[in-house]
């Protein structure tokens, strides 16, 4: 099912008022432009790209203000009244499932005096009541009650609604776009849709989930998710035995939105509930949806991750593991709980291995002696990510996305 928000939209930021860039940031963008040539250099990003507040502001506008962002799985928003609240590059966002089954995405900032009507997290409710002066909003963001406002004749309660964002579901994944003029998501993902047919995403259920905070710039988490080379260093006991870091990466990156890379398993998977090809049994299929979304199909499990900036140096890592519904349908409650705990504790262990390492990288970004480095042939998708980032940052306001 695909739903596209058509209600009153959040205003698009006016970039004509953006102050001119400092010479340092202009230089940084010029360096990023180096990834846009046909055969770009296999070099890591300049260290300033992870530490510049000015570049982060540009990313907020040009990347996070205009891209489809993976934020949840539909099972987290299954029941009427279910909500997921989070922060995307400093913008609070809440997604709800309305009583009519439709999804809504909106800014939870109260239209009175800016109190957030809900804090980041998940839950279920029939309305949002602002904690400050108790204005009440429905699940679609419309104002349904405001205390002691009748004598203000300039106030029109019927026209008062939380600013709306675009939201779509794609095979169970929930994406949000803060740009009210966003193009539909599905055509962007057409290139990877056929790759995922045999994994039957629509028949999968969320068997475990997590949301963690990592103290690093979002690009440090994202570039790490674009390569398997680090598995030998960060994951010697967890992932190295099944997908060793020495393996070659088979990359396909012919769209700016969704790239695919494959890593061979040391032992082919033996699925019993899915009909996978020999290639699918033999490989981890990793898909990356620019800028923050990752889907990893590994035999009968699909792991989704999204690495969403909270600030310049903090990132929320949201994710979950999907399994075929047939695998859990005959399980009792205790067995399901045990399965969930197993998945979540294993994921927490692997995530902690990445987090510890990447937080150490973050501590280096301000060093005077940090520098760009040469990349290995084992990390080709990292350059693809840099190129997609450069495209997004360097495009003009009228160049999204058709002209790219
Ligand atoms: S700020 Fe929300 S009711 Fe006043
Ligand atoms: Fe990792």
From TrEMBL:
Pfam families: Rieske, Ring_hydroxyl_A
Cofactor: Fe cation
MF terms (GO), sorted A to Z: dioxygenase activity
Keyword Oxidoreductase: yes
SUPFAM superfamilies to which the protein is assigned, alphabetical: Bet v1-like, ISP domain
EC top class named in words: oxidoreductase
InterPro entries: Rieske_2Fe-2S, Rieske_2Fe-2S_sf, Ring_hydroxy_dOase_asu_C_dom, Rng_hydr_dOase-A
UniProt KW keywords: 2Fe-2S, Dioxygenase, Iron, Iron-sulfur, Metal-binding, Oxidoreductase
Region (Disordered) residue spans: 1-23
Keyword Iron: yes
Domain Rieske: 68-176
Enzyme Commission no: 1.14.13.-
PANTHER family with a match to the protein in the record: CHOLINE MONOOXYGENASE, CHLOROPLASTIC
Protein name: Aromatic ring-hydroxylating dioxygenase subunit alpha
Organism the protein comes from: Streptomyces nogalater
